[in-house]
Write a structure and sequence with these properties.
Blueprint: H1 3-22, E1 26-30, H2 33-42, E2 49-52, H3 56-61, H4 63-69, E3 74-76, H5 84-94, E4 99-102, E5 106-108, E6 113-117, H6 121-127, E7 132-138, E8 142-143, H7 146-164, H8 170-174, E9 189-193, E10 202-207
Parallel strand pairs: 1-10, 2-3, 2-4, 4-7, 5-8, 7-10
Antiparallel strand pairs: 5-6, 6-9
Length: 213
């Protein structure tokens, strides 16, 4: 990565962090994944009940591995579920966790979070339930406006996610959004988080790398 791009990320992150503060959310910037993992680990405490949503960013950054290696927390690990019933139980239990980790499909320069979900468990936790929600967001997901964010999710994030999940949606076949209502559509819920009702409940870790889709 060029020094110019690194500097641009730092400047954009500073702008976003100030905007998050106005929206009752907390933000910080980490130049790389190793710093992000360290920062995320410092938000945990002994005996904490921790959960996470489906996220390539958490896997690519190393957050998921860090959580699975911790012996001082109680991890609700959805990836270890053996049946649909067990997965459903973890989804529900996660809403009462102390710390919930996820990413965001997009974030605006003005500090608004935009997420589109299929099942809805991830955005449900973002909206209400867990005492703290930590979002790990690569700077590749920064966009100017909410409208740009929605377009990004539909046309940049959703097609590869459908391909990854083996969905038979139109976007998996063409690579672009068809605003479909197909059985395999993963765009069921659109959530725009413009403010946190509880101060500092939402903590955004911006990472100076490209993460996820």
């Amino acid at each position: 990565m060029s020094d110019v791009l690194k500097n641009t990320y730092e400047i954009q992150a500073s702008t976003i962090i100030k905007a998050l503060e106005k929206r009752n959310m907390k933000g910080c910037y980490c130049p790389d994944c190793s710093a992000a993992v360290k920062q995320a680990g410092e938000l945990l405490f002994d005996g904490a009940c921790v959960a996470f949503g489906g996220s390539m960013s958490l896997s690519e950054c190393g957050i998921k591995d860090m959580l699975q290696s911790r012996t001082d927390i109680r991890l609700l690990d959805r990836s270890k579920a053996k049946t649909p019933e067990e997965t459903s139980r973890i989804y529900h239990d996660a809403l009462n966790s102390d710390v919930y980790f996820m990413s965001s499909n997009a974030i605006t320069l003005d500090g608004e979070l935009v997420n589109i979900d299929g099942t809805g468990n991830r955005v449900a936790a973002l909206i209400y339930g867990p005492r703290k929600v930590v979002l790990v967001v690569g700077m590749n997901k920064v966009v100017p406006t909410v409208a740009d964010a929605v377009r990004r999710v539909h046309n940049v994030a959703t097609p590869p996610n459908c391909i990854r999940l083996g969905k038979q949606s139109p976007c998996a076949a063409t690579g672009v959004c068809h605003d479909c209502l197909s059985p395999d559509c993963i765009c069921s819920q659109t959530v725009i988080t413009r403010r946190s009702g509880t101060a500092d409940r939402i903590h955004v870790i911006l990472v100076g790398e490209a993460l996820g889709y």
